[in-house]
Amino acid sequence: MSDATAGADGSTEDKYADLLSDEEGVPAFESVMETRETRRERYSRKFDTYVRTPLAIMFEDWRAVVGLLIISTYVVVGAFGPMVMDPVLMGEGEPLISPFQNWQFPLGTDRTGQDLLTMTVYSTRPVLLMMGSGAFFTVTVGTIVGTLAGYKGGALDTVLSTVTDTFINIPGLPLVIVLSVIIEPTNPIIVGIFLSIALWAGLARSIRSQLLTLRRESFVESSQALGVPTGRLIRKELLPHLLPYVVINFVNAARIVIFSAVALYFLGVLPFEDSNWGIVMNLAYENGAHYRPDALHWLLVPVFAIVFLSVGLVLLAQSLDRVFNPRVRARSSEGGDEDESTTATTAMTGGR
Amino acid sequence: MSKTDSLQESRQDESTIMRVRDLEVYFDMSRGQSRVVDGIDLDLKRNEILGVVGESGSGKSMLAASLLDAVVDPGVTNGEVTYVEEDGTETDVLGLSKKELKRFRWETVSMVFQGAMSSFNPVTDIRTHFEETLIAHEEDLDEGMERAKEIITDLHLDPERVLDAYPHELSGGMKQRALIALSLVLEPEVLVMDEPTAALDLLMQRSIITLINEIKEKYDLTIVFITHDLPLITGLADRLAVMYAFQLVERGPATEVVRNSAHPYTRALLKSTPNLQTPLEEMRPVEGSAPDPINVPPGCSYHERCPLATSICETEDPDPYDVTDDHEANCHHWEETLEME
Amino acid sequence: MSPTTTKPTATTGKRPWRWSETDMSQQQTGTSQQDGPSANEQEPLLSVNDLKVHFEKESQSIFGETETIKAVDGISFDLTERDVLVLVGESGCGKTTLGKTAVGLQRPTEGTVTYRGQDVWTAKDRLGDIDIPFREIRQSLQIIHQDPGSSLNSHKRVRSILEEPLIQGSEDLDWNQRRARILGMLEHVGMAPAEDYIDRYPHQLSGGEQQRIALVRAFLMNPDVILGDEAISALDVSLRIEMMDLMMDLQEMFDTAFLFISHNLSNARYIAGKTGGRIGVMYLGELVEIGTVDKIINDPEHPYTRALKWATPELDPEDAEEKDEMPIRSIDIPDPEDPPSGCPYHTRCPEAKEVCATEEPSLLETDVDEHRHQVACFRSQDDHAYWDSDPIE
After folding, report:
1. Nearest to B280 among C90, C274, C323 (CB)
2. How close, in Å, is residue C274 to chain B by CA atoms?
3. Predicted confidence band of residue A37 (pLDDT cuts 50, 70, 90)
4. Could you report the predicted ipTM of this complex, rounded to two decimals?
5. CB A34, CB C203: distance < 8 Å
């Protein structure tokens, strides 16, 4: 790659002679007026960085598109579904109608004649809330603990790591089961937080290791030399490096939360007020749906609902990594082949 | 003497061990074709040390790799690279089959890569590295290890200590020497070294240069030494070849090229290299910057930065001009260059 | 073309910095004194006194003892305004540790680092009366690392990287003013058109360009001292003079002192020679010789300096061939955990005598060069017992 130098306009010394003013003997730089950036340009640039580029990168990847579609569908259904559909009533239909038979009960009914589609739709919101809160809690606590432990080191690290290790070693599901039985949470958000108690520690551990490496990088020392306060340093310098990892963990945590939730409802550990997929599965199973061909759909409908959501999350997670990669960002925002040329050049010159 | 005549001569010249003609290496990229080696002719004489000097990105590493037909995909290597044995038998290196190439590499022409200190496997000890190499080339293990120990001793290392060590237990200088030993264990004829002393301290660097000379004598080697640090090899090399913008711009005996440079780039390079003798006022950086491999200027690739450039330089790519019998420069104004201060 | 500096203020010690822009006139911050001596003029800018930096290395086994590595073992020197000092030595000699300690990035085990009379670590720990707050000291001492690739955050664009020093600095600038300065600086260091460069990520720049960004970042802080930790070693040999020239140019403009670290004597010669600075030779955590280019390069006294000079490659091949005898008894450096007794160099010194193994020479001024030359070797003392001692086997 070539170095741009100032040789074009003649000797370097002459070019900058007039940049040095003699006013009070202090050097002065002249700026060129045309380079002033308007407020509008600035916001446009920020929009580009935070919205347009990430979206552009994501839409290049089919996985992101599909993943986003699936998740958006669930979100829309969860948000607006209950407004559009009436809640289930027992006996509104014949018991155990098979799916795809008629428009009134597209997915069939359960043993008590309740429409499975409506039940699925109504379950979506609490499930999403559970997932969201669980993932958010996991990621937030995990990142904060891991970052503090990794960056600060010393006594704080020892304390936080001990706590982290304790939580890692406590078996997750049994812990949650015990807690749920004692406390009997019903609010989906609380349930989500409960379920993530077992998850945050793993993330904290990984983030801590990443930080142990990162903090030795020269750019961190440079920032320290500039006097950047610790909070800002972590936020602006280190977090971008962690974000891909954090985001992917968010999505994975969401998946684990929902699976755990379903499992616990299925086991009957978590109390239920309204119906949700896990509960439906529980009931279906208790009624032997898994070996009754005419009732099989009762079990499978919630299962598919969960699986699809999970697939959507996985696809999204896989594609999100690219959004944070500066090489991909550079290529996307400029539309040039920067990425290709850099890697090819590295191959060509053997590194240097 | 015309170019064809001199070509004929070198074809018959018994002391040539490798011959390169019209070598080109290019990469096809979406924004164009990147030619990192752009038509190089070179004769490597038996038992000489040839120094190839050029900036980073001038193509010298690719040149080295092509001597072993080791240019990474998707690079394409064209031209002629011929290995000549003492009895005259010629081998077309670029045409070798995969199996033949495997024998050729390391047994005939061996290479010490740039940044090679990290090319040791950190989880195996040095002995295993040697053994694996010997086994891969189906050599007798005992004989090979004896040879290895001897080479290691010649490099002023303690074989027992080194062989039993893991790479991280050795210092930079020791690793580099171990690597050189590894490249010699199959008794190659030619050794290509790409920046072998890059990360080393002054004293260690100096001692390795001396060692290279010693082993060259003892093992009857021909060495190609690639570097961007000109003073490093002026004492070591018999001949120098200067690379600029993916071509050779000057070739000749080391003393000649340094004292009577006939190419403006060589002169500029000499002036821009920090050393202990040149008066400080005479040192100056090279103007401008090296061209992009996709966008090399027409005519002489150096003309945009050259103080002597005239109109002919912009249109005609200079062929090598003979300055003396064995000193060539690719410059239309080579005579003027000799007069430069 | 060196602009005269305005004298630093007595209280803050910070020189006012002035940017004039065609449509924005930026007034001076703080007071400025044109004439008249300031109390700080007599004082060295940065002073390092009997500095020791020791690292504990944990032993591998449970029962082993912790080893102490004395990276820096009793070093003192002063830097005045716009001074240039190049520390030269092999790896493991402690020069990087010394450099980082001098600019306040590493806490010393013993000894002091003083900035304009204020002890740096006392200021940081907020003990007692502090004349200069730590934040000000912190920002006056900057660093440029060896590897430009890792000294720039790969996730940040050039604009963002270069805004940070301006945001942290004492002046209150709006984003357009910052942008103007960044563009101005980029053009000055030869990266034009600057608007192209500010949106780039580090991986889209060449090594030389990256290093220039690191340079600009340090200078935008308007520091008093910059530590260049092998700042040009990662560049091609043919690009080094250009970079050193640029550093010297910026040094003049910003009135900064330079503390350079290099393992290469040729580079040290160039930059010390061109600025009239000094070269300090380090060995195993100690300064063995310090002086101007005239002394260190042309007439070195310490045997180690001579060895380094011998090891530096020559440009002319015939000169190169004349060197044969290796003026050093062993190529390998002693283990830093177990340094030699007496003079640390005696194990490799060709002139070593028995007294060298028992007594340690101190760094003493010689009469040369208006006392700017110091050397730690008995051979420079005419009346030392060295001359009567027997050579070591």
Report:
1. C274
2. 7
3. low
4. 0.83
5. no
